[in-house]
chitinase (Streptomyces albireticuli), 581 residues
Amino acid sequence: MDRARHIGRIFRRGPGRGSGSGRGLARRLGGALAAALLAAGGLAGLDAGTPAAAAGAANLARNPGFESGLSYWACSGDSGTVVPSPARSGTGALKATPAGADNARCAQTVSVLPNSSYTLSAWVRGAYVYLGASGTGTTDVSTWTPSAADWQQLATSFTTGPSTTSVTVHTHGWYGQAAYYADDVSLSGPGGGDPGEPVPGAPEGLKAGTATATSVGLSWNPVQGATGYHVYQDGTRTQSVAGASATVTGLTPATSYRFRVTAVNGAGESPGSAEVTVTTAAGNGDGPAVPKHAVTGYWQNFDNGATVQRISDVQSQYDIIAVAFADATPTPGAVTFALDPALKYSEAQFKADIAAKRAAGKAVVVSVGGERGTVTVNDAASAENFANSLYTLMQTYGFDGVDIDLENGLNPTYMTQALRSLSAKAGSKLVITMAPQTIDMQSTSAGYFKTALNIKDILTVVNMQYYNSGSMNGCDGKVYSQGSVDFLTALACIQLEGGLAPSQVGLGLPASTRGAGSGYVAPSVVNNALDCLAKGTGCGSFKPAKTYPGIRGAMTWSTNWDASAGNAWSNGVGPHVHGLP
């Protein structure tokens, strides 16, 4: 996509925004934000005056030195592990690694008494390491260090509320940063619960019932002395129940999940049960189905002189709306998304508008890349980061899938791995679109073409950009210049005869002369090319050897430029696409 057309966006966002908000935030944390937190007392743990745990005081934290692995601790997204080195004392220390939208939070719940004072401390190593307590019933506390090259103690204190009987103590890192380490966690103060009451044992016999597409029932053997149970899904606690069974809902079809449970009482929380793995049934999901013939339009998350739109403003002729663009983060392969402040568009309204479009039968995907996109997926780790971060965006905003618009090349092996991993998470309704440049689809040996063929079973459509390209070879070996029916049909023929299904081929054109540097054609030319490919009519000098009535349709950059031109493109091309055989 022609990202050069939004240079104003870069000046508005300031340094680092285009290469991922995490990187810019990390730089700023060391300066202005750190100063602000210091002023507000947010760095209390770095203050020499902060009280440490009193010598000899009882430590209410269980497995505080991680000598028993992760017993009593739960780390988000399986981000935590116990390593023998570097350990501050004993035989192990916690190592937790942030990834994508996960800040590697590791926590345990501890019994306390109401209206009582407590001191929390831990030794940490790494950049941007946090220690805190939540559920205090008064003011939850958190302290952090921006950099600890060697073991450094963090400490803070709090007072419980009048009805507080348990608090959750936790450590976490920061998005896009390297792994952090923690050891020798201490919570000192009066212990909660019956002094003679033991912590319950780990639940046994965990099993899963028959899973539907979106839910599964779990059951386990009751534990003596337990007053309740916590259910953990993929390492994160999702619910608490009183009895020895639970129903987990809101799952994605055809997706594997891991579950374990713990038992709790006034004395604390047990170690976790053995895990069970459950794969949900395949289902239709709740996303819209892309029609047989579809129109795709890119929606600009920036103001570059085109009409500024909300998602609700996008013309109804568009069946697939590609939100441009997701941004890279410092974590290889991972992406993030944030609304441009220049749009004055709240996140809540954005999500509501996406939901309304989906309810109207439209698909909304997030586009990765653009001309200035710097997302790189070139190994197994970055492939998984790519899939995980995109799935998080889908869950956060309601996107139906992803558009791949990487104009600086891609690795077909690992992009294939990434998209298949995303498909496994998101289920059968996942929408995957691509917007390669013309040069990327000249040969089946090209990386983009290879990727498209590798994921042919889950690919929705390839909307190649028939603009900003100059002359290119057609499938008959002749050279064609952009801006003509022949250019569209002879180049589409390469994809149609190179292994893609007709339903996976669309024609990508600018909505107006202002939408791209070159290659604009009138809507009538787009329609003639579609007729030539679908019905054998309206052709120029090139006429395909056969027709492709299942051809998917057309795409444009962008809905905003279309709106600037009075929606001439969508009003001219949309009805024609929807009327194809």
Notes: The longest strand covers residues 148-159. Confidence is low (pLDDT under 50) at residues 2-56. The chain is about 20% helix and 25% strand.
